[in-house]
Amino acid sequence: MLQLGEYQQLRILRETDPGLYLGNSEGDEVLLPHKYKPESFELGDELNVFVYLDHEERPVATTLEPYVQLNEFGYLHCSDVNKFGAFMDWGLEKQLFVPFKEQARPMKPGNWYIVRLYLDEQTNRLTGSSKTNKFLSNENLTVAKFDEVDILVTHLTDKGANVIVNGIHKGLIYTEDIFEDIRTGDRLKAYVKKIRHDNKLDIVLQTPGYKSIEPNANYVLDELKAAGGFIPLHDKSDPETIKNELGLSKKSFKKAIGSLYKDKQIVIKEDGIELI
């Protein structure tokens, strides 16, 4: 069975006026229009294609790369809104439809939104939803403390950055743990800092705890070399200054320079740190 919204490896069966017909081992066929066919090919070759519905609601294959695949979240641009709903640019010819009932708040043309691509069981159509919370759950966590995870930043608040963790869980990066410029739609590597009693996830962008000392030490060492061997920061420097200059918390910075000092790679002076 051809799965809408996913990439599939299909074999070239025959060439016709509309394009190439591709098929799988189960006997399903789909058209790849001529404009997407490879420059050279032979019958029997296999192609990796994305399958979705065209403007006439027929399955069609394409070699264009969508910005989001089935059961994934993407950060998409709203191109238009009509009386039925919103239409998102997701990298394909036919735009992705988000009905009003699937909009967390009314969408406006020109704005960007976090959208989940799912298959509507009633219509068998690929549909978008910005009601992301209904697709996420922290009831049965698949991550542990200190695990590296993939995150998608959904929105920023006074508390920090709300994120989707590994595409299935909700997490939060607290403001005091943000030491770089991050924005809605950013996809980043991050770490589980803490799992709270209610299964809420505290996320950080740097390796938490003792594991972060060595990477931060190497980072500070690189910054020292780039600065000519001296940086006017030390263990008594203002936290905001450290954050602005190096993107580290004061605690992380002190751990890093402590490690470098112990390894006799730097000296700590009254006005800063210096390479030995």
UniProtKB/TrEMBL annotation:
Sequence ranges assigned to domain Conserved virulence factor B first S1 in this UniProt record: 4-63
Occurrences of domain Conserved virulence factor B-like winged helix (ranges): 220-275
One family name in Pfam for this protein: S1_2
InterPro entries, per the entry: CvfB_fam (IPR014464), CvfB_S1_st (IPR039566), CvfB_WH (IPR040764), NA-bd_OB-fold (IPR012340), WH-like_DNA-bd_sf (IPR036388)
Family: Belongs to the CvfB family.
Protein name per the record: GntR family transcriptional regulator
The organism's taxonomic lineage, starting at the top: Bacteria, Pseudomonadati, Bacteroidota, Flavobacteriia, Flavobacteriales
